[in-house]
Automatic annotation (TrEMBL):
GO terms for cellular component: mitochondrial inner membrane. It comes from the Eukaryota. InterPro entries: Amino_oxidase (IPR002937), FAD/NAD-bd_sf (IPR036188), Protoporphyrinogen_oxidase (IPR004572), Zeta_carotene_desat/Oxidored (IPR050464). This is Protoporphyrinogen oxidase. It holds the Pfam family Amino_oxidase. The gene is PPOX. It comes from Araneus ventricosus.
Amino acid sequence: MATVGILGGGISGLSCAYYLKTLGQSKIKYIFLLDKNPKFGGWIQTTRFPDGAVFEHGPRTLRVGTKAGYNALELADRLALTSRILPITREHPIAKNNFILVNNELLPLPRDVFKFFRKSPPFSKSIISYIFKEIRTKSANLDDESVYDFATRRIGEDVARYAFDPMCRGIAAGDCRELSVRSMFPFMYEAEKKHGSLIKGLSKSQRIEEAADFIKNDLVLTAYKQIWRMWTLKTGLGELIDALAGTIDERGKTDLIFDAKCSSLIFKDDKVVVEADNEHIEVDHVFSSIPSQELSPLLSEYPLLADSLKAISSVDVAVVYLEYENDIIGEKTGFGYLVPSFEDSKVLGIVFDSCCFPELNGRGKTRLSCMIGGRWFKDLFGDPETVSEGTLLQVATEEVSKRFNTADKPIRHKVLLQRNCIPQYVLGHHLKLQNIEEEIKKNNLNLSLIGASYKGAGVPDCIYNARLSAENYLKSL
C-alpha cells in the first residue's frame, strides 16, 4: 500500500485526496495533504456576512455541459450537497442576458433566435451569416493558433473582437491575441479537427456524449434534462471546500496540515522526502497542485523541468465586492458585463451577483463583483505591491456610477488583490506540458501534476483532472 503526499489544499488537492481515498481504499495507506495557508480552499474562499450576504473571493459558479462539469455535479451529490445546490437553467434570464461594453454603452449579446436574422450592434452582420461562414470554412492544419486568429478565421473579425476578446478577459483575465485556442478552448480545437466545424461539433449528440459517463447519477440526469448552465451552493462555494475537507478527515488515514509551505522535494530510492517548515515526511508519490511557478524552485536539480514549469505565467486580478442598498441595475438584469481590451476601462468586467443568486443577498438589493487588471494590471497600476485598496475601490465605484448612472454609494465593500491567481495558457502551452511530462518520465520522478496551471483553470476542470490523475496512479499500483 502506498503513502502519498499532496501539495496544496485548494480544490485540486482536496479533490485528489478525496478520489484517492474513495477509489483506492485497498491501495492507499496514508495521505499527507499540506497547504501553506491557515485554511484550505485556495482561490475558493467565501465571506458570509451576518445578514446573509455572500461574497466570493474567486470562482462563484461551476459550469455544466462538459464531462468535467457533470463530474463536478456527481461529486457534489456524493458529498451530500444536492439539496444545497442553486442551479441556473438555460431558460433562466441570467443564462440569456449577457452584456458587453462598447463605446461606453452596455450592449446585450444576441440570444433570441429571431434576432439571428438581423444585425445586432456591435456586430456588422447578422448572426446567421457568421454561422454560415463558420460551417463553410475549411479546417486549417495548424498545431496551435491564438484564440483571436482562430475566431477571425472561422467566424469573422467582428466576433473575435466583440465576443472572444471580452470572453477571454472574463475567463482568464487574458489577451485573446496571446492565448492558445488549443489549450484554452480544447473543445473548439477538437471540433474543427474532428468535425470540420464548431457548429457541428457542438451538436446535441456531442452534449449526450459529454454526459454519458455520469448520466446514471440522478443529479446529473436532472441537470442534463433541464439543461443547467451553472450552479452554486446556498451559502457559497466555500460549502464545497468544507464538505470535501470534512469527508476526507472523517475517513481517516489522512493528515491535513495547515501553514506548511513545502520548501524541498528530494527524490531518492523510489521515495520522495517532503520538507515543509517543521514537517519532514517520506512518501511513495507526490501530487502537486501548487502553481507551476511555486513548484519550479523545488525541482532545481532538474533544470529543464524547472524552466518549463517557470515558463507558465499567471496574472494578478483585483476583485472588488460592492453592495448597494437600492436596485441600481434596473432593466439590465443579467449575469453581468465584460469589457473588451480596446475599451478605455481598467475593468475586465462586473458580475451582477444579486441578479444571479438573489438568495445570497443581505440587506442590500444590489451585489456586484468588479474584476480589475489581469494581463494589464501592471500596465495600469504598476507594481501590485504598491497599489492601495483605496485606488482599486475608486476604480470600481466610478465604473459602477458611470455605467448605471447612479450617485448611490455602496453600503458595504471588500477589496482583494489576488496575486498570480489565473494561469495564462499562451500559444505553445501544450508544448510546455509535453516537455514537462517528458522530463518527469525521463528522470523517473514519483510526481503527478494537477491544478489550474496545466489542463484547465476552471473549478470543474481542476476537479476532473485531479480525478483522472488519481485514477491513473491507482492503476499503476
